[in-house]
Amino acid sequence: MRCPFCHKDQADRVLDTRPAEDGAVVRRRRQCKACNRRFTTYERVETTTIRVIKKDGTRVPFDRSRIQSGLQRACWKRPVSDKQMDSLISKVEAEIEKNFETEVQSKFIGEQVMQFLRELDQVAYVRFASVYLKFQDVRDFVNEVNSVVEDSNENF
Ligand SMILES: [Zn+2]
Question: 8 CA distance to ligand 1 centroid (A)?
């Protein structure tokens, strides 16, 4: 990194690194080893953060914690551990990486979460689905519950 004061391209010392407002950029405080002056750089992070296309068309960086908070609500008082939730999110992430390069519809994420959650805990699944699919009335809810029950009957 060329020093903006003495213009020497000598190795500098990174004093501090933190994300800038835009998540794709980090702000680094550096100190030039030649003149000891300090300067700040803004650097693009090279990791390709996939972007999520929301229903209204806006795009946000993929964020595990968004899935996590939805899962925690669905799994409230259910026998699902943080570790299981974490591995579910990782499975969803792997599916995204397998199928998309830069952008993914939020719908795909919701469907993946539902699919894996259905295998994990059916009560949590129905809770998640009722929020995610925005069930219009109690009939939708009953239909979804029935489809879960039918599926589990097939498994026995
Ligand atoms: Zn310098």
Answer: 6
